[in-house]
Amino acid sequence: MQDEMLETAPHSFRWNESQLRFISCPDCHADRHVPVLKRHDRLFIVRCARCGLAFVYPQPSTEELARFYKSGYFGGNSDFHRGTDYFEQRRKGIEAGALTGAALLANLDLTGLRVVEIGAADGALLAWCKSRGAAEAIGIEFTEEAAAWGRARYGLRMICSALDENAFPAGSVDLVIAIDLIEHLQNPKSFMAACAKWLVSGGRLAILCPNGSAISFWGKRWIGVQENMEHLTYLTRRQFVRWAKEFQFVLERHSYEGCPLRRAQYRSAGSRTHRILHEPHKAAYNTMIKLLTAVMPASSRHQQEMILRRL
Question: Which residue from 23, 73, 94, 258 has the highest number of Cβ atoms inside 10 Å of its Cβ?
């Protein structure tokens, strides 16, 4: 059954091989690395021999990444949003209180804050922040389709742009949000530096991203390497602790969540009881996955979320 799970992982976007670039470590710029595993898109995940950062090698060029995001990323063609109306799903998430990232921010007092979200997609989380008292909510989004939706649907200030450290004056932002973003960036360290520049003293950076430590526990069985081939780095808590020290942050909160393994999908229709009775082997496999996740260390889980406070 475990082999079946690997075989049923979704087919992903194929990169143009002429647009692949052999790069140095995105963090320390060292050229020596060791292979970790090969992804479904035939690119390798390697680990820097100097600093330990896990990253994709070779990596798609900036132009090739742009081609990917313009090929229906939010329209249901990518692994993460496959077969869904992503914008409508997010709108309903606001109403149902089930919007990705909202739980991470729920304990923060947003009243009167200037909030910036990088990789804001349609701006749904920013609209939620406004409903919680944020004085200003600004989104930076890399695709015009999503940015236009945020302007039209939520009346937000949405800027369609690549990451630019000069987008905001130094010390002018109270909260920066990066939900499912940093793993997409070619230079995540530059992002951390930009956030440190923008934030006021005491301002916060909220991050949700895949947990790179899961590779050490699960290898190719981790869903984080079976899909979402646009992810370029696999960051660990240790990496964020190091960057926090370098850019004068305090890691205020950090936790792991999410099942790291792919669950078996039932093929029969009907109630849950009906599906279990007709496909007991899949029910048994899913139960095993749930129990295994429960007894393994928290650092083996799929995602990590954190709040960093600017000193």
Answer: 73
